[in-house]
Amino acid sequence: MREYLKIEFKHFFMNKKNIFIYILLTFAAFFYAYKVAPAYDPIEKVDREEIEARYLTRQEFIESIEKRDNEDIHPMTIQAYHMFSEVNPLDKARLDVLDTGDLKKYAQLTSEWYFKTNYMTYYNEHLSYNSRYYMKQRELAFDRGFYNSLEQYARYGAYAKADYELSINQFEQRTALQTVERLLNGPLPIILITCALLLTIDVVLKDRLHPSVLKGFPLTDWKKLLSKMFVAYIGSLALFFPLIIGFVVIGMRSGFGHFQLPSPVFTNISEWQQVGSFDMMTLGTFLAQSLALILMWFLVVIAVVILCSVLFRHEMVNLAVGTLLIFGERFYLSRNVGYFWDIEKVPTSYIQVGRIVSKQYNFFLASESLDYLLGIQLLAISAAIVLIIIMLIAKNKRFMLIK
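^ ABC transporter permease, sequence as received from the core. Prediction below:
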C-alpha cells in the first residue's frame, strides 16, 4: 500500500498539467497581492474628503432654509431639511474624531450614521444609496446598498466595543485576513474547487499510460481507488500554499489583521429596525467554517470525478460533470428564489462558501434555511453516497480498473 501511494504521489505531483495549475495559481496569488489588493477601492470606505464635502453641502442647504420663511418652502424641502439636520451633526462629529485619531469613537459614530441614513434611504423613494452600487447589477443596486449599509452598521458597532487596537485598514477590510474574507465572499471558493476538479480529472484515467506497472501491485481495485482519492485530496490541499504566499505579501503591506475582528452574519430582515439584522461572529470562526465547507467540496468533487472515471472512462465526461456540479447553481438561483423552491435541500446551493457562512444568500435568495451546518451535512451525505456507489462497482467481479 505504501509503495503504491508513493507512485501515485509521484505521478500526481509530476503531472505536467498539475504543475501548470500550481504555477498558474501561484502567479495569480502574486498578481493579486501586488496589483489587485493595493488597488482595492471599497464602496463603503473611510474618506474624509467625501464626508467633508457632503457635510458642507448639506450644511449650506440647512443654513439657507433657516433663513427663509417656512410658508414659502415646499414640503419635500422641509423633509430634506429635517433629515439633513439629523444626520449632519454625525458627519461633523465623524470629521472631528478623524482629526483627533479616536478611531473607537469614529466607529461608534459611523455605526449610528449607517443606521440612520439606511433607515432614511430605505423609506424614502427620493433618496438612493451610494451611486457606485448602480454601476453594475442595477436591478440589485438598492438591495445591495440596503444590505451593505446594515452590515456596516453592525461591523462598526462591533469595532466600537473592541478591546484591541483599531486601524483604517481594518475599517476598509484591507488587512490580509479580511482580504481572505472578501475573497471567500467572492470568487475564491469557485477557483479552488475548479482547480481541485482539474487536478483530479485524470487521476484514474492516467493509468492507461502505464498499465503493466500498476497491475503488479497486490491491491484490490477498491483500495486503489481509495488511494487515488487520498492522493487527489492531499494534492487539492496543496492549492492553499500559493495562497499563503499572497497572504503574506498582503499582510506585510496592509497588516495581517487577527482572528478576533468582527464578521457579520445576516439574521432576520423583519427585525432590522429594532435589533439589527446581523449577529456577529469572529473572523476566525468565519474562516474556519468557510474552510470546512471548501474541504468538504474537495471531497465531493474528487469522489464524483472518480465515479465518472469508473463509469465512463473519458476525461471530457469528468470535466463536463464536474463543471455542472460547480456551476449548477447558475441554472436556478435568482433574487427571492427561496420563496418558491426549497433550494437549501440542493447541495449545489452551497458552492458560494463565504456567502453561505455569512448568510448573504439568505437575504438575496430570500431563504431562511440556507445554513453552514446543513451544507456540511448535505455534502457529507452526497460524498458518502458516491463512495458507496464506487465501492459497489469496484467490488463487482466483472469490474476492471485497468483494461
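The chain has 18 helices and two strands.
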